């Protein structure tokens, strides 16, 4: 039988929507016909669920609980309030909020009025906020009055004159202090009295709904655009599958909702009826308290989040026996961490591989063999397809076991990069394949083994060394909490292997100790680190990934300084 594939996803902005790109009509027809796109919006699916179980628990914080009825009432009121101040279809709304219920209300409300949600990380300060609001051409910014020790609203007030497109700032848990501002609470209360504004609203599931930015190692974040269709169908299937497997599921996500990994926790709640426990700022002790109090069954986060919880000195003081599933994503997960999670909670964690552009590509499942869960990132999910190609000749598909570029095709492919059509075109071909820039290989059973970013590969005298292999080995050392391997510049060999480590209790761990450990693992000698640098903590992105570019710059500067002296 002849294989069918989607036509090229390349499209152009339709005449009535010049602001954002769109898929071609043929591409849209393909995924609808294949049954992967349901043609529904986030608020459509949410409304349908609320009708069936309005009094079930939806959102939990340290201080408050919301049923699905209350969730809908607040999000509807917020949608009406936003319409009342002129926010509507295709307006780009930048949201810089902690994991508060207001963020969840906004996700549904912005879907209902046809606006585009664009999350901003809370660690961003004036320079980054100005840059992103200017690049996005943000129409509305929604920020807290303050959070922690930082005044977000005052920052936006100070840069308003530099952002001519920004016409409104909405202040959460604060008050309006001038023209062009309003309080989020006031919008909700005003909207409760004017719900008729929502009558007759209809939104296109092919419309752009989500804009977020990559946080990769290249130092040049790119804004990826998704529609309802590229997001909703997959998350609906995943949420329904999870709720069936565990009818009493209670979910706690450690990742911020400004990052895709945390952002889509709301989707699982809205579409699968899975209660979500919100942590507005990641503190391991707060997570432990909520697990115990709410009998949390499912916890998700980055490897750094899990390590912080498992290694907290008060971990044993809390009852976490309710946990039956763990999702680790956002960054590589070392085999040692997977083993520890199974030892502590008796559950097999899911290793996932995806990126903002593809959402979810591959995933391990609890029924997979233990070695696949430890050493791979699973098989393609929900209609996705995988192939590995030669980096230097993308027309040549590589056989099992050979490392090359990971290539994706599937219904969750992003529409394009915001305001970067040339960059979008470079990533895809006429058969709907997306070239990720990541390296890996497929084993004989079709499981993907992730090797890292192409730019992270170490070339030592012509030998290609993949940092993840060494990182996975060193993560099994009893004294090493975290590790990152980069190439150190070298005049003779080009690069040498350098390992940055964080150790238990800040203990020193010399090169000889590391080599002895690798000797016991029967590791190939050329992979041995030739330099060890101990850090108190790794430099991290806002999404919980190690900043490899920062470490590469650091070792380059160290080598240069040593040569000069």
Strand content: 15-25%
* CATH architecture assignment of the domain at 31-54 and 69-231: 3-Layer(aba) Sandwich
Count of DSSP E strands?
Answer: 27
Largest sheet, strands/sense/barrel:
9 strands, mixed
CA-to-CA gap between the ends? Answer: 67 Å
| Proportion of residues in helical segments | 25-40%
Average of per-residue pLDDT values: 90
Q: Biggest sheet: strands side by side, in what order?
A: 2-1-11-10-12-13-14-15-16
What is the general shape?
globular
Please mark out the parts with pLDDT under 50 across 5 or more consecutive residues, or reply none: 12-16
- Helical segment count: 18
CATH top level of the domain at 31-54 and 69-231?
Answer: Alpha Beta
Structural class: alpha/beta
CATH topology of the domain at 31-54 and 69-231: Rossmann fold
CATH superfamily of the domain at 31-54 and 69-231: ANL, N-terminal domain
Protein architecture, described:
- The structure is a single chain.
- The protein has 565 residues and is an alpha/beta fold.
- Among the domains are: 31-54 and 69-231, 3-Layer(aba) Sandwich (Rossmann fold); 479-564, ANL, C-terminal domain (GMP Synthetase, Chain A, domain 3), CATH 3.30.300.30.
- The chain contains 18 helices and 27 strands.
- It starts with 24 loop residues before the first helix and ends with a helix.
- The model is unreliable at 12-16 (pLDDT under 50).
């Amino acid at each position: 039988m002849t294989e069918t594939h989607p036509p090229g996803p390349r499209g152009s902005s339709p005449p009535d929507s010049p602001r954002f790109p769109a898929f071609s009509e043929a591409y849209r027809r393909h995924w609808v016909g294949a049954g992967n796109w349901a043609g529904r919006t986030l608020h459509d699916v949410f409304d349908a669920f609320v009708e069936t179980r309005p009094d079930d628990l939806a959102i939990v914080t340290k201080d408050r609980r919301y049923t699905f009825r209350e969730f809908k009432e607040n999000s509807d009121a917020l949608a009406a309030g936003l319409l009342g101040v002129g926010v509507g279809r295709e307006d780009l709304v930048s949201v810089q909020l902690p994991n508060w219920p207001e963020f969840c209300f906004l996700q549904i409300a912005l879907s209902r009025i046809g606006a585009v949600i664009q999350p901003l990380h809370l660690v961003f300060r004036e320079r980054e906020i100005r840059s992103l609001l200017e690049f996005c051409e943000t129409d509305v910014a929604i920020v807290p009055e303050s959070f922690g020790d930082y005044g977000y609203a005052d920052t936006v007030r100070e840069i308003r004159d530099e952002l001519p497109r920004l016409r409104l700032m909405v202040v959460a848990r604060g008050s309006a202090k001038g023209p062009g501002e309003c309080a989020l609470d006031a919008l909700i209360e005003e909207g409760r009295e004017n719900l008729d504004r929502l009558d007759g609203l209809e939104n296109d599931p092919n419309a752009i709904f989500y804009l977020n930015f990559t946080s990769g190692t290249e130092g040049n974040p790119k804004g990826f655009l998704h529609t309802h269709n590229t997001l909703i169908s997959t998350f609906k299937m995943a949420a329904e599958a999870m709720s069936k497997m565990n009818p009493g599921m209670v979910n706690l996500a450690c990742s911020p909702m400004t990052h895709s990994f945390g952002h889509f926790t709301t989707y699982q709640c809205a579409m699968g009826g899975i209660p979500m426990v919100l942590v507005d700022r990641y503190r391991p002790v707060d997570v432990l308290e909520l697990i115990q109090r709410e009998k949390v069954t499912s916890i998700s986060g980055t490897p750094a989040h899990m390590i912080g919880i498992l290694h907290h000195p008060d971990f044993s003081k809390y009852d976490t026996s309710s946990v039956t599933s763990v999702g680790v994503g956002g960054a590589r997960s070392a085999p040692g961490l997977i083993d520890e999670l199974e030892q502590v909670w008796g559950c097999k964690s899911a290793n996932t591989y995806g990126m903002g552009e593809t959402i979810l590509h591959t995933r391990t499942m609890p029924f997979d063999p233990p070695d696949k869960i430890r050493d791979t990132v699973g098989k393609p999910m929900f209609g996705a397809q995988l192939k590995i190609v030669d980096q230097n000749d993308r027309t040549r598909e590589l056989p099992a076991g050979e490392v090359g570029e990971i290539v994706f095709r599937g219904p969750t492919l992003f529409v394009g990069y915001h305001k970067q059509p040339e960059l979008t075109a470079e990533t895809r071909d006429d058969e709907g394949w997306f070239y990720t820039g990541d390296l890996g290989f497929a084993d004989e059973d079709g499981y993907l083994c992730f090797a890292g970013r192409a730019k992270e590969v170490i070339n030592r005298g012509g030998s290609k060394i993949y940092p993840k292999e060494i990182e996975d080995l060193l993560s099994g050392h009893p004294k090493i909490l975290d590790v990152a391997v980069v190439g150190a510049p070298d005049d003779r060999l080009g690069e040498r292997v350098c390992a940055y480590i964080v150790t238990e209790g800040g203990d020193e761990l010399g090169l000889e100790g590391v080599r002895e450990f690798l000797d016991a693992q029967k590791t190939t000698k050329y992979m041995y680190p030739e330099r060890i640098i101990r850090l108190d903590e790794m430099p991290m992105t806002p999404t919980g990934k190690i900043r490899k570019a920062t470490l590469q710059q650091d070792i380059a500067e160290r080598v240069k300084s040593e040569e000069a002296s």
